[in-house]
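As a warm-up, study this chain.
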Amino acid sequence: MDGEDRVRPGKDRWQESYEAIRAYRQAQIEEIFDYARGSGCRMLRLVRHFGDTLDQRRCGHCDECLPGGTVGRTFRAPTKAERRTATDNEAGSLGK
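Now compare it with the structure written out below.
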């Protein structure tokens, strides 16, 4: 669409930029999954994600450092809809 809301043909090679954006966003989602599935101090992983590679101290408070002191490891069984969505998302990420 142009500035006057008229639909015009797109530029050639638009798909390359679209696919690059899609791949970037998919990588972000995979990082979130890796964080959730991963082990090790959660705070340390966040600190490293944002660029501080020098700090090596574990926080001592997260569900990995202090498993008995948090409720982060208490899970309920997924609903059928949640299981279906997760399966669909996993199948979709493997096919790309």
